[in-house]
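Hmm, how's this folded?
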Amino acid sequence: MTKIDKAVVLAAGRGTRMRELTNELPKPMIVVRGKPVLQHIIEGLRDAGIREFLMIVGYRADAVQNFLGDGSRNTISIQYATQTVQDGTGRVVDLSRDFVGDSPFILSYGDILVDPANYKRVVDLPEDVEAIVTVTRGEDVSKGGAVFLNDRMELLDLREKSRPGEATSPWYNAGLYAFRPSIFEFTAKLKPSPRGEYELTDAIRDLAQSGKKVQALELTGEWADVRDPEILARLNQKP
């Protein structure tokens, strides 16, 4: 078992569906239950043993950097990299190559809230597993990634934003991953998707279909993609 101690957090997006809430802040800095989404993520990862963080920033990067600083307030180390062109999650991961080196790492989208107990489950990477993709049930796969698994919870396919009539799956990509550096071989070969973006999910599919084991892990407890004001309001109503 490999214990992971590095994490990359994607915090570059504006989140246009949040409307005026993101005029001054990037979406990961929106407050849920008294603190920014990003703070929830960092605390969960830190408490699971992650000590080194790379924040990928872009829109209103100053808001993230002013809030988190070098990480010492949270007893961690934080570095920053800037995504200058918003051309998809596949390209963003490449920005972390130097930070990662030859170590395995956690990758988290910066607008996903999960029950903190789950972070402890993804920091242990079995030796025969090349990547872990977390999944959840009951979400609308037209808004994210449909994950296709075999009966051993190994990934067979991953499709972004399925259209009506396409094959579907009960498993939804939950936006938290563990990777070995081999993922970079596959992000380097990406071609733009129909949306014109370089999709990390395409690289993960290619990794799985190259014969490497990509294991799915079903998250427990609460999960939320803080994607719009309605979800934000619902989260902030709960105690």
User: Anything to note?
Assistant: The two ends are 37 Å apart (CA to CA). The first helix runs from residue 37 to 47.
